[in-house]
Amino acid sequence: MASSSPQPLPAPKAGQAYIEVSALEAGMMHLPLQLFMTGAAPDEVVVAPSLAFSLRHVPSGEHLVFDLGLRRDASTFPPIVQGVVEKYMPYTVPQSVEESLRKGGIEPEDVKTVVLSHLHWDHIGDAASFSNATFVVGEGSRAILEDGYPKNPKSDILQSSIPLDRARFLPTSAFDTAIGPFPRAHDYFGDGSLYLIDAVGHLAGHLNVLARTSATGSWIYLAGDSAHDRRMLTGERGIAVIQRPDGHTLCVHAHKEDAVETIRRIGSLLDVPKVHVLLAHDREWYEENKDGDAFLPGKIPPRE
After folding, report:
1. Domain extent at residue 86
2. How far apart are CA 133 and CA 68, in angstroms?
3. 281, 51 in Cβ contact below 8 A?
4. Where does the Metallo-beta-lactamase domain start and stop, copy by copy (predicted)?
5. Do the domain assignments include residue 7?
6. pLDDT tens readout for residues 138-148
7. Distance (Å, rounded) from C-alpha 175 to C-alpha 192?
8. Contacts of 46 (CB under 8 A, 6+ apart)
């Protein structure tokens, strides 16, 4: 799926600001691959991380957290999620995102900004631990929160996922920048260091992060749940659609065709020099880097 003529990302300016990116442990979960991608066997289950990230702006030092991973107490999830966890996706949280931050010298109550890729249960963590943070989400998150659980007993989205009095819903008009293969991006700091990408397809309001990781042209793309396996980015595998016995179909992406296009755009970055693409559930990367310097208080090294 990687493009034969990838679109370049903008070159750095003199004194270019950039982002120090550190991975955060935030739980491990079982993923039945048949639910996510074509070509997987019914019994093909992998244990993968639900990664979160620390993002520090250089030179200002302003700090953000991207995603919060899993919460330890599954009984607080909507009933439909509890059923999915019990039957298909058991998980453990050996180290929570809060503990990961503290290990790196950051107290959760000192975090000022949390950006959530989306509102699925394995990314929302426990917002109560971040009592002084503003929560930044895509505008599309508003409607699914309003129709979430418990108002809608069948919803898999918790209405209490984020504190509404400290929520910032990025409007459609905020995504007014095109960068590389992405037509809709928000230049978060206004200096070309951090872009929030309107990554349509998976769930309303789904955001990805494109960040410079050096002043000399390195980048990282944090793809959230745009894809659940790297083979989907290369085109080796496609998005799974499951035919249920009742005649209905099941797809983990709310809008499959939009998700296909988003995956294609992300896949094109694989051919761009000095760009690191990382999925939220990237088990291969995790196995290579767990307990290493890519995790706070260390940082993910820039691609050179």
Report:
1. 18-289
2. 12
3. yes
4. 49-281
5. no
6. 999 999 999 99
7. 14
8. 30, 31, 33, 283
